[in-house]
Design brief:
With 518 residues, this protein is mostly helical. Among the domains are: 1-37 and 197-298, no CATH class; 315-511, Rossmann fold. Helices cover 53% and strands 5% of the residues. It has helices at 2-19, 22-36, 40-46, 65-84, 91-112, 116-121, 127-139, 152-165, 173-188, 202-209, 211-228, 235-263, 267-293, 315-320, 343-353, 373-376, 391-403, 424-427, 445-459, 496-505, and strands at 336-340, 362-366, 381-385, 411-414, 439-441, 463-464, 476-478. Strands 2-1-3-4-6 form a five-stranded parallel β-sheet, sandwiched between helices. Strands 5-7 form a two-stranded antiparallel sheet. Helix 15 links the parallel strand 1 (336-340) and strand 2 (362-366). Helix 8 (152-165) packs antiparallel against helix 9 (173-188) and helix 15 (343-353) crosses helix 20. The longest helix has 29 residues, at 235-263. The N and C termini lie far apart (65 Å).
C-alpha cells in the first residue's frame, strides 16, 4: 500500500511547490507525512474535522484518511487471530465471536457518537464496516450452498446503487452507510456472487484490480484541476479529469503495484524494492517536514507580506488572533469601543487598529457576551462581528446593552465576509497580466448575498456592510486590495492587507458625533 502513496506524495509536493500559497503548502506537507505513516484520518479529525467542507476540495490528499483507517484495521485484525489461537479447539469460532462482538460495539459507537468528526474519521466507529467482511470470510465455505439464491446478486446491486444515490433528504448519511454495508454482506452471501455478468465482467474486474490506484489518484487530479483549470466542472472538464485519472491510475497500477508483485518473487529484487521504498520514504518525509517547519514558504509573497527572511508557522493565525491581546477592561479617557464576536470579531479589531482612528479610540475585545458585563457599561460603542450572524444573537446583545444603561443605537453590527473558497486558484495565475484584477465567486453566493442584503436592510445605519465594498456588478468578490495585497489569506479572515483596506474604506466619522477625524 505504501509505494503508490509515496509516488503520489512526491507528485503532490512537486506541483504544490509551484501553485500553492504557504498555508496550503504547509497543510499539504503535513498531510503527506500523516499519509505516509497511515494516520491522515487522525490528522483530519483534529484539523479539518468536516470532510465535506468545500475547502477540502483543494486538498490533494484529503481522501487518504481512509487508507489510515484501513491500515489501522490491518494492525488490529491480526491481533484477534493471535488471541483466538490460544483456543486450540475452537479457534475459528472464538475468532468469529471476537470479530462479531467488536463489530456490534463499533456499530453502537458509530450511532452513539455525537462528534461527527470522530464518528467519520476514527477506527472504533468504522470497525464494523471491515468486520462484516471478516465475518463473511470466516463463515464462508467453498462449494457450499449460500443462504441467498442465485440471481439475488442483481437485486443487491440495484439496492446498492439506490442506497448510494440517495441524499440526506431521503435517508440520513449514517443509515445509508449501514445500508450499503448490509447490502454488500448479503451480496457476498449470495450464490453466483463471483460468476454473474457484473462481478465476472472482465472490464469491471480490471477496474476492481486497479481500484487502489484509482482511489489514490482521483482526488489528486480533482484538486489540482481546481488549481490549474477551474473549479466549475463542465462536461468537457469532467471528461478531461476522467481521462487523466485513468492514465495516472493505469500507470500507477502497471508500473508500481504490478512491479511490486513481480519484485517480491526473488530475494535480490526484494532487497532492491525495500531499499528503494525506505529511501523514498525517508527523503519524502524529510522534505515535507522541512516545508512544514518553514510554514510552507518557498518564495517571497508580497501579496501576503511574506518573505523568505520573515517566515514562521502560524503567521496568518497570529495576525487574526491579535485581538485577544485587547481582551481587557478600559483604562484611558479615549472613546471606548468594545468589539464582541468570535474570530470575525478579532478581524474587526484588526480593522480598527489599521485605520486612521486607531490612536483616537481605546479598543476592548471579548469573544462572548458573558465576559463583557464589567465593560459594557463603560463602552461608548459596541461592535458585534461574528461568523454565523443571527437576529437572536443581536437581540440578546441589545437587551444586555439596555440593562447596562446603553441605547440600542450604540450597537453596530458588522456584516459577515466571504472571499470564495481558495486563493490557490488565484495564486496559480500569478504570471497573468490581470492577476491583481481577479474576482472570484462567493461560496453559496445566492444565499450569502441575500442574507447580507437582509441584514443591511434590517439594521440600516447600524450595519457595516463589508461585502458591498468588494463586490462587482456580477456579485463576484475582489481578491486583492488596490495596493495588490490579498484581502483574505484563507477566504474568511482578513489578512494584514485586508484589514488595512477596510480600515481605510470604512467611514469612521459617523461613529464620532463629538470629534472630528483627520
Amino acid at each position: 500500500m505504501l509505494p503508490p502513496l509515496l509516488v503520489a506524495g512526491c507528485f503532490c509536493m512537486l506541483l504544490g511547490y509551484f501553485v500553492m500559497l504557504p498555508d496550503n503548502f504547509e497543510n499539504l506537507s503535513e498531510s503527506v507525512i500523516a499519509t505516509n505513516f497511515f494516520c491522515n484520518n487522525i490528522l483530519s479529525a483534529i484539523t479539518t474535522k468536516d470532510y465535506w467542507d468545500v475547502s477540502n476540495e483543494f486538498k490533494p490528499l484529503m481522501h487518504t484518511w481512509y487508507v489510515g483507517v484501513v491500515m489501522q484495521f490491518y494492525i488490529i485484525y491480526p491481533i484477534l487471530f493471535l488471541i483466538a489461537k490460544h483456543d486450540t479447539k475452537y479457534s475459528r469460532k472464538t475468532l468469529l465471536t471476537l470479530v462479531s462482538v467488536l463489530a456490534v460495539i463499533s456499530l453502537l459507537i458509530y450511532f452513539g457518537t455525537e462528534d461527527t468528526s470522530k464518528r467519520f474519521y476514527y477506527l472504533p466507529s468504522r470497525f464494523f464496516e471491515f468486520a462484516v467482511g471478516g465475518i463473511v470470510a470466516l463463515t464462508y465455505t467453498p462449494n457450499q450452498n449460500k443462504p441467498f439464491r442465485k440471481g439475488f446478486v442483481y437485486v443487491c446491486y440495484a439496492l446498492l446503487l439506490f442506497a448510494m444515490s440517495l441524499n440526506s433528504d431521503f435517508i440520513q448519511a449514517n443509515l445509508r452507510l449501514v445500508s450499503v454495508v448490509a447490502f454488500t454482506a448479503v451480496l457476498l452471501s449470495s450464490q453466483d456472487v463471483l460468476e454473474n455478468r457484473i462481478t465476472g465482467n472482465r472490464i469491471l474486474a480490471t477496474i476492481g484490480a486497479a481500484s487502489y490506484s484509482i482511489f489514490i489518484w482521483h482526488q489528486i487530479i480533482l484538486a489540482f484541476c481546481r488549481y490549474f483549470i477551474t473549479s466549475r466542472f463542465t462536461i468537457t472538464v469532467f471528461a478531461l479529469i476522467l481521462l487523466v485519472t485513468a492514465i495516472m491510475s493505469w500507470l500507477s497500477y502497471k508500473l508500481i503495484e504490478q512491479s511490486i508483485s513481480m519484485a517480491l518473487k526473488t530475494k535480490r529484487s526484494k532487497v532492491i524494492l525495500y531499499s528503494s521504498v525506505i529511501s523514498l520514504f525517508i527523503a519524502l518525509n524529510v522534505f515535507a517536514a522541512y516545508i512544514y517547519m518553514n510554514a510552507g514558504v518557498v518564495r517571497d509573497i508580497p501579496e501576503l507580506y511574506v518573505s523568505m527572511q520573515n517566515k514562521h508557522r502560524g503567521m496568518h493565525a497570529e495576525y487574526v488572533d491579535r485581538g485577544n491581546q485587547y481582551n481587557q477592561p478600559f483604562t484611558t479617557q479615549k472613546p471606548h469601543w468594545l468589539v464582541v464576536g468570535n474570530s470575525f470579531g478579532r478581524d474587526f479589531v484588526n480593522v480598527i487598529l489599521e485605520s486612521p482612528i486607531a490612536d483616537k479610540v481605546e479598543v476592548s475585545y471579548s469573544p462572548t457576551f458573558r465576559e463583557i458585563n464589567n465593560r459594557i457599561a463603560n463602552a461608548d460603542l459596541v461592535f458585534f462581528s461574528t461568523l454565523g450572524l443571527e437576529e437572536t444573537k443581536v437581540t440578546e446583545l441589545e437587551i444586555l446593552l439596555l440593562a447596562n444603561g446603553l441605547k440600542s443605537n450604540q450597537l453596530v453590527i458588522v456584516g459577515e465576509k466571504n472571499f470564495g473558497v481558495s486563493n490557490g486558484q488565484v495564486y496559480a495565475k500569478r504570471n497573468d497580466a490581470d492577476y491583481f484584477e481577479q474576482y472570484v465567486e462567493v461560496e453559496d453566493r445566492e444565499r450569502f448575498i441575500e442574507r447580507n442584503r437582509y441584514f443591511a436592510k434590517l439594521y440600516g445605519e447600524r450595519y457595516i456592510d463589508l461585502m458591498t465594498m468588494v463586490l462587482n456588478d456580477d456579485n463576484q468578490v475582489r481578491v486583492f486590495s488596490p495596493d495588490h495585497h490579498f484581502i483574505s489569506a484563507d477566504c474568511r479572515h482578513l489578512s494584514e492587507g485586508g484589514a488595512i483596506f477596510y480600515g481605510q474604506s470604512i467611514d469612521w466619522e459617523k461613529y464620532f458625533p463629538c470629534m472630528c477625524v483627520n
